[in-house]
């Protein structure tokens, strides 16, 4: 059987490029240099149209991360008209805070610097991340200290226009530990480079809750009510702080969901995420 089709071209072709170097950083006790990389899904067509960009930030307790782990799900955003960039950042075994957020901000500046190449609308960049990546999403949205912009492309802004953190740690000073020895081994202390139980003020100062102002970009916070890794209250704290400051914030409570629960990977939730970025970035 033969069939002739004349298909109307209504969507671009999306191309996935993995392992793009966006920065070079010192490594191995500053004796060497290594590349920081990102994965990108971007549109190619002949129209010259640009698209808003969503930066994905992987979780892993700031100890481990894999920028390619969620590309299958991130393609859902690409299919709805977004450029999607999943960024690598240095983990706490390589250096303490603010190193990871400096890396995230460097990636955002790189994307703006190469916006024409990857069809990005540089005025509309958002971020989304899970757990440790949710923390970094919040800090990218809330902490605009110029000292966090280091490396190349400093003529470009690292500010984002929308944030969607999943189960984020938002106040490192409010986690509960049995004793200082337990706190010393906690992921929060390894990130900060000090014992958060013994340095409460410094831990709060390096947390999203301390950075909230009325100028915060729109937020969509998502957290499971039965999270055994990052307490649900961590998102409640941030939501209340944003609300008190008159910010644009929505909070989705996933009933009965644990940390990184399968609820987070269902179409019903991804449709809500896409609606959020459609509204705030397009």
**Cα-atom radius of gyration:** 19 Å
CATH architecture: 3-Layer(aba) Sandwich
- From the spread of the alpha carbons, the general shape counts as globular
Count of DSSP H/I helices: 8
Mean pLDDT: 96
Query: How many domains in all?
Result: 1
* First-to-last CA distance: 43 Å
Quick synopsis:
This protein is of the alpha/beta class and 282 residues long. It is built from 8 helices and 8 strands.
Describe the structure.
- This protein is α/β, with parallel strands linked by helices and 282 residues long.
- It has a single domain (13-171, 207-281), classed as Alpha/Beta hydrolase fold, catalytic domain (Rossmann fold), CATH 3.40.50.1820.
- It is built from eight helices and eight strands.
- The chain has helices at residues 71-79, 99-113, 132-142, 180-184, 187-192, 200-205, 233-244, 267-281, and strands at residues 13-27, 32-44, 51-57, 83-87, 120-130, 162-166, 219-224, 249-254.
- An eight-stranded mixed β-sheet has the order 1-2-4-3-5-6-7-8, with helices on both faces.
- The protein is globular, with a radius of gyration of 19 Å.
């Amino acid at each position: 059987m033969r069939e002739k089709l004349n298909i109307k071209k209504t969507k671009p072709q999306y191309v996935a490029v993995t392992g793009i170097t966006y920065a070079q950083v010192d490594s191995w006790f500053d004796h060497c240099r290594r590349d920081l990389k990102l994965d990108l899904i971007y549109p190619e067509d002949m129209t010259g149209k640009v698209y808003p960009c969503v930066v994905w930030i992987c979780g892993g307790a700031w100890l481990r991360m894999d920028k390619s782990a969620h590309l299958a799900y991130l393609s859902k955003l690409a299919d709805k008209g977004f450029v999607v960039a999943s960024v690598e950042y240095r983990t706490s075994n390589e250096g303490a805070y603010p190193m990871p957020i400096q890396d995230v901000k460097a990636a955002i500046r790189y994307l703006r610097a190469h916006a024409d190449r990857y069809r990005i609308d540089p005025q509309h960049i958002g971020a989304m991340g899970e757990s440790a990546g949710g923390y970094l999403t919040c800090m990218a949205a809330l902490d605009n200290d110029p000292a966090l912009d280091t490396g190349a492309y400093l003529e470009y802004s690292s500010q984002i226009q929308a944030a969607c953190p999943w189960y984020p740690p938002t106040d490192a000073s409010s986690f509960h530990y049995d004793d200082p020895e337990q706190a010393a081994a906690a992921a929060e202390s390894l990130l900060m480079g000090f014992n958060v139980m013994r340095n409460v003020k410094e831990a709060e100062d390096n947390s999203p809750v301390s950075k909230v102002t009325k100028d915060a970009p729109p937020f969509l916070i998502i957290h499971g009510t039965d999270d055994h890794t990052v307490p649900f209250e961590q998102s409640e704290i941030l939501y209340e702080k944003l609300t008190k400051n008159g910010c644009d914030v929505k909070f989705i409570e996933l009933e009965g969901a644990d940390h990184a629960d399968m609820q987070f990977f269902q179409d019903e939730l991804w449709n809500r995420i896409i609606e959020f970025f459609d509204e705030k970035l397009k």
